[in-house]
Amino acid sequence: FNILQQETPLHVAIRENMISKFIDILQEGNLYTIHNLRIVSTNDAYKPVKGTFKGLFLLTTVVKKISSISISIPLHYFEFGSMETLAQRMDDRAVLSTTLIFLQIHN
User: 56 by DSSP, 3-state: which?
Assistant: First the structure.
């Protein structure tokens, strides 16, 4: 199963008791191969990215940094939505949505 074929950001979680195993290996902005990652359907009340799957690190997960490929990975991810999309998400807590309002005050 290759989640990248879907071109969808994937939320991946590491349980608190496994953080020490991966904290020195994973660094933001790098590219990795990850083996033994459990992919599950997500039905979380809140999802940081849109999608139907979530990755879970296991005790048997193996992470290796790929240095031979140079790729630009954005540090932040967001998408613009129409007012109609925001209205449809009004009572939906699954995807974090917000509205930015800019005011220009003239004296």
Answer: strand
The CB density around residue 66, as the number of other CB atoms within 10 Å, is 11
Residues whose CB is less than 8 angstroms from the CB of residue 81 and which lie 6 or more positions away in sequence, other chains included = 89, 97
**Are 14 and 23 in contact, with CB atoms under 8 Å apart?**
no
CB 62 within 8 A of CB 36: yes
Which are the contacts of 56, defined by CB distance < 8 A and separation ≥ 6?
12, 13, 15, 37, 38, 39, 40
Which regions of 1-107 does DSSP assign to beta strands (E)?
Answer: 11-13, 32-35, 38-41, 53-56, 62-65
pLDDT in tens, 24-38: 998 877 888 889 989
Whole-number Å distance between alpha carbons of 7 and 53: 12
> Under a CB-based contact definition with an 8 Å cutoff, are residues 78 and 31 in contact?
no
pTM: 0.59
